[in-house]
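Encode chain A's predicted structure.
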Amino acid sequence: MDSKQIQILIAMASYMIIVIVIGIVFAKRANKSTENYFIGGRSLGPWVAALSAEASDMSGWLLMGLPGVAYWCGISDAAWTAIGLAVGTYINWLVVSKRLRRYSYVANNSITLPDFFSNRFKEKKKVILTISALFILVFFAVYAGSCFVTCGKLFSSLFNADYKLMMLIGAVFVLLYTFLGGFLAESVSDFMQALVMIFALVTVLVLGIMNAGGIGAVMDNAKSIPGFIDFFGIASPVVDADGVQQVVKGIPQFGEAGAYGWLTVLSTMSWGLGYFGMPQVLLRFIAIRDSKELKKSRRIATIWCVISLFAAVCIGLVGRAMMPVEHLTSSSAENIFVSMSQVLMHPLFAGVVMAGILAATISSSDSYLLIAASAFAKNIYQGILNKKASDKNVMWVSRVTLLVVALIGMIIALDENSVIFTIVSFAWAGFGATFGPIMLFSLFWKRTTRAGAVAGMLAGGGMVFLWKLVIKPFGGVWGIYELLPAFIFSCLAIVVVSLLTKKPSSDIEDEFELAKTEAADRIIEAQVEA
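Encoded structure for chain A:
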């Protein structure tokens, strides 16, 4: 390991120590009760709620996956995805946040999503609770795998070390941290990590443009590649049988631009639909201390999201001008942010920027592991298997679940050729289609029934697998992102089955009406103060 690598390691280690200290500081408070451990006692302020939601949501794919897509095939895929995510962020905070905060409390003080769905429909046989908890376990294991891939790629690229060893070290660190502090420590550290992430993105973008010869030089290079900066076209790297891009006289080879029609645009923008079903974001709505602060949180979250997504896409374009033949496979392209940081910055500052990637990965994976653990421990173990379980027992079961989900994530991450963007897109579709429609209908359609909720979750989650594995390979119009058809199918299932079944009881309807009013806010505030 040379001096440059040592300095980078020192900066990153310093960052990791700060994260651990945060976990230690909040560990005592987190372990007082399951409500504190899983949602921080509903005490998040507007800045922490907003930035921790975005940091846990964006994950390492914001700094590696998204720039990698833009570097590899140009602006269209990355930009339309970013636009969909920015719009989805704003609408989710605008429409869902306040109603969910109220309704989660009205529905028997629900502190997890499976809790909320089960309590919302007052089910005695915990079918909704079980189905939703199982889907969370499955998709968060996939999500955790994507985070561990990020750790492996980052450390192996920085220190020329074995990918699998580096992936395992990163996974163990995340696991230990999540064990320690719970939701509150996670949220506070995510707030700090969101600041590191946006600093890293903006800094690398500005320095990259300067190094590449200015915006004009970057645009000239992009224009020379067919379809690279076309919103309705896509660049097509010429690759050999092993997926390696061909290079002739130092110039990467591209074929004719591919088509990128309106159906593809709509499909790509449908990433924004995923927000309505993302547990790591929705939990921040439940946990914020005062509904009056949601407006401020919405503005903070949206501004952070727009700046970060814009910078991430642009880094891919700048990277192609700076390092045209540095990364010659779609998997390797996801290291462009790392490569630029090492070239552009002093090792200590590069280490801080690398900490931005680590920040994104930690902030997401600890959220995924914690929510998956709560889904099993709180909802299945205490809700079904052992209803008399104490808070202490529930937290121990949650930690065992953390370990199991992390191990599954490590297995998923063993392939070093995994593409982070692809792994994330599947898990994102799974959550978006499984929970997004039923969340919206539960909050805003009083006629939604328990049977409709069950049908919607099964239809959405099942269609994600069916479309991805069976229908999408046919290509053409069938090649759209699986979230869009699965989301629509889930909505149809909820409406049809709800209308065909008996309308909800008066108790359920009364709670629905209460959750619409400010009286619910006053009840929550009084309880929080008590």
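The chain has one domain: 3-20+47-417.
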